[in-house]
From TrEMBL:
Organism: Streptomyces mauvecolor
Residues covered by the AB hydrolase-1 domain: 22-267, 304-411
Entry's transmembrane regions: none
Keywords linked to the UniProt accession: Hydrolase
The protein's name in its UniProt record: Alpha/beta fold hydrolase
Amino acid sequence: MPMFTTYDGTRLAYHLRGEGEPLLCIPGGAMRASEYLGDLGGLTAHRQLVLLDLRGTGDSAAPDDPASYRCDRQVADVEALRGHLGLDRIDLLGHSASGNLALLYAARHPDRVGSLTLVAPGVRAVGIEVTEDDWRSAVALRAGEPWYEEGRAAFERTWAGEADWDEVRSAIRPFAYGRWDAAAQWHEAAAQAGANRDAASAYYAEGSFEPKATTAALAEVTAPVLVLAGEYDGGPTPARAAELAALFPNAELAVQRGAGHYPWIDDAEAFVRTVAAFLDPDVRTVTVGGVRLAYRVRGAEAAPPVVLVHGRGGDSRDWAQIAERLAATRRVYAVDLRGHGLSDWPGGYSFEAFRDDLRGFLVALGLAGADVVGHSMGGAAAALLAEDEPGLIGRLVLEETPPFFPLDPPRGPAERPEGRLGFDWPVVPSTDAQLNDPDPAWRGRFAAIAVPTLVVAGGPASRIDQKKLAWMASRIPGARLVTIDAGHLVHTERPAEYLAALGEFGIGVL
């Protein structure tokens, strides 16, 4: 277990989990040991977590001066750890009460912050008040739960001054989680066991915060900031989290559906997708119709744009080789559609939903008139959009795109593979149902695609009926049909030939 000596001689411990670039994580509580953070839902697959045990918690020593538990005085501990790790800048994550500590660190050391992730953060440091009405609104969201009435009554007793929090803790603790199942109950018990309650009272001691000065300092923080709130959390509510995000010049707000105060416990995969996308310098996000879409960008900003849309079960990384080559002359955008990669997985999947994702993506980023290259499902979404709004698309490439004839034989129920997937499994049965019985109007409107179109077929090894794919090309006015004998994954199996076809079509270089 690694340790270091902080400014006043106190020995502090930290724990390393995972591989990759370090993410310094400070626990909340206030004053809980870092153990309750675990691997943050599997974030260790993307970053190495440096989990600090605050002074007097976990494996860290207690200080000689109890007054040093005060939040503002622990900023020096975080800075000492940065120096110990030999990092010029740190990516910093703070949860709950340590959101205040992270805010104070960013205000005092803005040049040392590479990025700031605030998860269900405390907001006292900036003077945002979490009110009883906030909590009443959050509590009301859980009205259907079997523990709701007892918990609501317990909250009311504390607000009326008839009980303190320790007396009612067992009744109100389910409200901290999106679902009060065995995993949440185990986590809550373990987190409480790691708390230093005496230190917690000193954490918020008078003089800890100077909101006016801190707010002014945060307005100068140029590092990217993610404020992640749980839909059901009362402290802070999503509305208060939005107030916090608004204090920074470069912040984004994410609200995790169905989550409480511990979003990595409520839905680990949703939490990891959001945070990993934020922390990855190659990934950006945009919200379309309430769905956060992740995307990757390459190439000069002033170059003509081209948008790459992956197939079912894939994501933007599938285009890496193609994107790298196209970026020599193009601004390349590769998007993760809903339910895929690092985008939100909201459920409700259909070709129409993917079409709407693409439309919203083009509009939100000001890419109307961009060339669009779609593979399989992504090509279907692009074709449907071109039928409806051809003005949004410059040139259109449909690689191995289903021509919307009923499958013969139809696909039966598919069995989900074991383990974690890079996409949301309900995408499969939802789109299979549409492929088995597609809307006839979809293929009936191919003639409405009034943009230059290239149809790329994969030849005999493809699972797409090549005769029907040729029929689709014949129905699109002026469309070209190119067959590259590669099977369904033309752009990955035969990238050189694929790029040559794009170049002859006017996308990329010959």
